User: Fold this.
Amino acid sequence: MGAEMGFNPFREQRTNAFDVALVVVAIAVTTALIIWAIVG
Assistant:
């Protein structure tokens, strides 16, 4: 009946090095843009 579709918040969460690196790069870019906006 379609119960298997959609987001399941109770599924096993797996992280890898790419996920961590992506978050770190996103935070670094956001911080750099904020500093650029304040200084520039």
Notes: The first helix runs from residue 17 to 39. Residues 27 and 33 are 10 Å apart (CA to CA). DSSP finds one helix and no strands in the chain. The chain has a mean pLDDT of 90.
